[in-house]
Amino acid sequence: MALKAVANGVFAETHGAWPPRVIALHGWGRRGADFDSVLAGLDAIAVDLPGFGASPVPEEAIGACGYARLLEPVIEPLEEPPILVGHSFGGRVAVCLASTTPVGGLVLTGVPLMRRPPARPAAIFRLLRLANRIGLVSDDRMERERRRRGSADYRATSGVMREILVMAVNESYEAELSAVTAPVALVWGAEDVEVRVSVAETAKALLESRHVPVELSVLPAVGHFVPTQDPAGLRRAIDAMLER
User: Fold this and answer.
1) pTM > 0.70: yes or no
2) Which pLDDT tens digit goes with each residue over 79-109?
3) Cα(161)–Cα(100) distance, rounded to whole angstroms?
4) pLDDT for 35-68, tens place per residue?
5) What are the b/e assignments for 147-156, b being 16+ CB within 10 Å?
């Protein structure tokens, strides 16, 4: 394996020979190395998405479909449309890519495809936010409050990457999923509490309503991080897609 610049300053771990038959996209806060075991023996690349691993932070805040546009130059020159594999945030990017660019198939795992209903901030936080707007509470105090109340991913980011995270959390991908025509494999951990199996079931129903070939595999005793927790389970879905 070696790091290779693939497009727009984006780097990827390479497996096997070029051109790749499989392109893997990792989750938020992760990197392409998550797929090392999954892709062993394949002609494939595992991208370090911009802002993670070896790839630099985007110049401006972009959503998942903005990430997809950065990766289009990787796919467009390939003679054979690749299989896209996406975990979590990377699956969002993969769906955006597949909605506009010919691909051979999609393998998605733990992908938050539908936006969760927004949680109403606690009353004290709403008061602090109002006080900050009128100058009674400092920006530093508000930042401490946001970090204390935010998710681990939110606390770990700042600047453009935090803006991107907030954008992604508030995005929904039903429209992009409805534009997918390639076959789809949904591979979910039965114990995934971050993106529950019900999300995959909803996505499966949407795809079936549009007559897109789709299969759902639920992996027992596996959580959200399928690429590292059950690489063999994810690899089976990739191999089946390659054999179609």
Assistant:
1) yes
2) 899 999 999 999 999 999 999 999 999 999 9
3) 25
4) 999 999 999 999 999 999 999 999 999 999 999 9
5) eeeeeebeee
